[in-house]
Fold:
Amino acid sequence: MGKYTPEVEVGLDRMREMARGNYDLGWMNSNPEGWGHQATAGNTGLGMRDIETGHYGEVPDQGSSRGSMAPRGCHIPEDTPPALSMYTLNEKSEVWAENAATLYDEAVVRQWNSTTDIPWDKLEKLPDDIEKAVCQMCTGLSEVEFVAGDMPAKWMCRINHDFHEIKLFLATQIMDEARHLDVFRKRALANGGGLLMASPGQEELLAAILEAPDYTTASSLMHIFGEGFVLTLFRQGEFLAPTEVEKRIFRLCMQDEARHVAYGVKHLKYFLERHPDREEQVHSILDVGEQAIFKLTLEPQTSEPRAILAGGGVENIGLGAARMAFIYEKQVKEYLNRLKVAGLDRESRLTIPKEIPFDDIAA
Structure:
């Protein structure tokens, strides 16, 4: 047996040929239909939308079964190994959204960090009830936000590389969610407080997201439902933020959440237009999500700190509860509207009340 394996010997032979000046250079003419492509930068720079045109903008309805890791639009040699079994999301409709490239372009230019973009120097000593309410809310949001990154991470490695716009967008979402966990944990630990109580209701909802049977139902449950409810909450952050620190956190997180929700709506729309027979499956997972989030909404460790913040203290918790009932009504209304935009009429199927009568809460 020789010193080297047969594969290494073949490589050495090739190197000897190169040393003699014998080169292949076949790769230089391998993709004539893709050569000569030009892109023009827009007002905000050269974005994903600017380069995905012509030959390279053609997204197949079915991802490649060869060269599954090859970039879309390149030449794939005949001897390229078949797609790896891990790439199970090979149908465009399973993951696609027409706004994915736009959202990716936005995400990469609007990244922020919790170290220098939050005015931590403006933290001030708060009354105990307010500080505890902030810390409890941050505990719950820390619990939610990282799982919102786990969901796309679970599915991203299964998506065919021909749909790279989706993979790139989901990568930005994972970073967004990691940053959200980071900023809410920092706020809980930065001002003389700390983390308080976890939420059984939260765990139930998060488990439903992670255990969803396919990508589209997981996306509907998280991007439209879960993150949609959080987005509405952040938009009403003026009720909840006692200082400029929390206001800034809510504003920055809100812009991230808005992208995730926008992707989810457009993906569900694209999917249902091509698979109307799957509508009932999406309804079924939303049944589960609605029950879980309603249970979560009424948990003391979820509802009470928000009511204290919305009212400005324990002594005004009734006023705060009324304000939170108003926010809940907006959450449900916006949730139904998003589904309608996606082509799903949930109005008659809603399993939770559209509003929480404040008189009932007070009683």
